[in-house]
Amino acid sequence: MPPAGSGHVTPFDQMNPLHPETPFVYLAPLQGITDSLYRKVFYQHFGGFDAAIAPFINPQRHCTAKEKWFTDVLPENNPGLPVIPQLLNTDAEDFITITTRLQDLGYTEINWNLGCPVPMVAGKKRGSGILPYPETIVSLLEKIIPRIKARLSIKTRLGYHQSQEILTLLPMLEDFPLTEIIVHARLGRQLYNGGVDLDGFALCRDHTTHELAYNGDITTAEIFTDLRARFPWVHRWMIGRGVLADPFLAMAIREKTAPTRDRLKKLAEFHCDLYQEYRLRLSGPGHLLGRMKQLWLYLIASFPEKQKILKKIKKATSERDYLQAVEDIFSG
Q1: Residues 298, 225 share a domain
Q2: Domain containing 58: what range?
């Protein structure tokens, strides 16, 4: 098997058929956060994930596969956690062009984003905004799949307006050789508000023979245990915001125990390394602080007694003010 991070490893290469009881866990793609640098630093400090799906390569009109679009998924930028590139394109020719370039980089699996709920995306009939139009999805697959060598998986939601949308779509996908369908158990119009619809996700099983993976509100090891008990037929799981809030979460799920020693020290070291890496990559303190503030919207959950300090982080206009606020969080 090729080395991890080479771009050749896929989740299906890694799954161990001798231990099907071991959950396979993905790091979810969060646009603007879980980029290659975050993935690299995270991998150096924590464990628990088997692979990551990269944030989608942003589609451009009249695609010519510009090299800068591929920076995040270049094999040399992903030395640790195996990664699967994700596309958002709804133009078949552009999809094929980008996939061909990714194949040249060594990737053997691509993920298609049919779940992004952001209004600017959904309003263009991309991401979850295309779910009310299953015939369009089928038409695109009929054009794309015969012309690409890479395997294709889909990440989606239960629908955009209503959960009946995925129940209509799933049977229409039966004839396509999809490796899996990852379902975030919300509607697109919900964004990330309200609870997940577990009953809606359960209904999906009766409408497809494809492998289904679960995504949505896995924020504690206890919640994960309950979900596994409810859905024993699910073997692949995806965690996003939950691990941004608690970087130890995937490890706790995999090892069935949460690290108790040196948690504060490990979090501080992770933050320090991530901050320094972004400081070298991003241009100017404005971009740097913006990226770190976005991370802290989630990470502050690991410090419930320090919630008030988040306001200082948000208000910081200099690196000095930012680092002082962070020091206040990590002290004690």
Answers
A1: no
A2: 11-255
Among the ranges 6-20, 50-64, 124-138, which has the highest mean pLDDT value? 124-138
Question: Do 140 and 195 belong to one domain?
Answer: yes
- Could you say which of 255, 273, 302 is where a domain stops? 255
Sign of CA dihedral 299, 270, 242, 286: positive
Same domain assignment for residues 208 and 268:
no
**How does the average pLDDT of the chain come out, rounded?**
91
Average pLDDT (56-72) is 76
CB under 8 A, 24+ apart: contacts of 40-43:
40/77, 40/78, 40/79, 40/80, 40/81, 40/277, 41/270, 41/273, 41/274, 41/277, 42/81, 42/247, 42/270, 43/80, 43/81
Task: Evaluate whether 103 touches 68 at the Cβ level (below 8 Å).
Answer: no
pLDDT tens readout for residues 177-224: 999 999 999 999 999 999 999 999 999 999 999 999 999 999 999 999
Q: Count CB-CB contacts under 10 A for residue 261.
A: 7
Q: CA 45 to CA 273: how far, in whole Å? A: 9
Average pLDDT over residues 124-128: 95
By DSSP bridging, strand 24-27 and strand 51-53 are: parallel
